Amino acid sequence: MGPSPQLIFDTVNAYQRSAAIKAAIELDIFTGIAEGAETSAELAQKCNASERGVRILCDYLTVAGFLNKQDGRYKLTEDSAVFLNRRSPAYMGSVVDFLQSPMLMEAFKDMTTTVRTGTTIMPDEGTVSAENPIWIKFARSMAPMMMMPAQVMAQIVEIDPNKKVKVLDIAAGHGMYGIALAQRHPNVEVVALDWPGVLEVAKENAQKMGVADRFSTRPGSAFDVEYGNDYDIVLLTNFLHHFDPPTCETLLKKVYGALASDGRAVTVEFVPNEDRVTPSMSAGFSLIMLASTPSGDAYTFSEFQRMFEHAGFKRSELHQLAPAPAQLIISYK
């Protein structure tokens, strides 16, 4: 088989696929099909859109693998039925609100300049600027996507059932990781730390999940706020990748000091292999950090080991959060 330009065309036109899935989610195309509107005419009426527009969009989604089509009727694929039907308990269509937010899209507007300078073109400190409102959007829109990896994490992390277990959730966001531990273990008490507006979302989620009585908050910057001490577990979920190694080590020394003598830091990250190109999702995440932060990156396990060792931790171990594409690092004081 000879050379083909297909990958080039697919990549150059990838923005069209992003636009199509966003439109389908906003129009509730997938939910409409699940509820029985299977022709373009039926969907157009249900979704308050033009029949021509719906037909072309649904045909495109069929080509892209989100729908099946037979005899002029559209059907959901298995993945679309689980994740894109608003009535599904695993619905995650809200992720477009964050992942395709204007602020985040703006970060990729001039990748040439970003690569030349080695840092984000976004103003201030990009997404890590103080009290950036994008994190409220993140907390609201990404919680459904994080529920599954949070539950897997809660299964992996061992908890002593015979004592009260104090958990500090740094940059808690939606709060789902601390909430998952509290749901699984009735002796877990969680302190969530984040910006005040973000913590309001986390508190709502704790209330919905039935753990509000064991869920408290501490507003402010993870670098400035007093943590307290004697925590059994400190959660660092999808946070360290925003910073360079020296900044991470500064934070980890603070985490080390807040832990009990037998405490653990539990880190959720996209951790590429040492070749930095596999697995694809973890390896590709570094481009997002290049575009949206001054100095963030997707770090390998050996890089994380070094950071934790420099902060005083004895050892770290790597776990997979399968089927989620992220990894879990448990570091021991």
Could you characterize what this model shows?
The protein has 333 residues and is α/β, with parallel strands linked by helices. It has two domains: 6-93, Arc Repressor Mutant, subunit A; 102-332, Rossmann fold. Helices cover 46% and strands 17% of the residues. The chain is built from 15 helices and nine strands. It has helices at residues 6-12, 14-27, 29-34, 40-47, 51-64, 78-83, 95-99, 102-106, 111-117, 134-156, 176-184, 196-208, 245-258, 280-292, 301-310, and strands spanning 67-70, 73-76, 165-170, 188-194, 215-219, 231-237, 259-269, 315-320, 327-332. Strands 5-4-3-6-7-9-8 form a seven-stranded mixed β-sheet, with helices on both faces. Strands 1-2 form a two-stranded antiparallel sheet. Helix 11 links the parallel strand 3 (165-170) and strand 4 (188-194). Helix 2 (14-27) packs across helix 5. The longest helix is centred in the middle third of the chain and has 23 residues, at 134-156. The mean pLDDT is 95.
Task: Tell me the domain tally.
Answer: 2
Q: What name goes with the CATH superfamily of the largest domain?
A: Vaccinia Virus protein VP39
Query: How many H/I helices?
Result: 15
Indicate the low-confidence ranges by residue numbers: none
Order of helices and strands: HHHHHEEHHHHHEHEHEEHEHHEE
CATH architecture of the largest domain: 3-Layer(aba) Sandwich
Structural class, judged by helices and strands?
alpha/beta
Q: What's the rounded overall pLDDT mean?
A: 95
Largest β-sheet summary: 7 strands, mixed
Computed CA radius of gyration, to the nearest angstrom:
22 Å
Please, what is the oligomeric state?
single chain
Number of strands: 9
- Strand % is 15-25%
Shape: globular
CATH topology of the largest domain: Rossmann fold
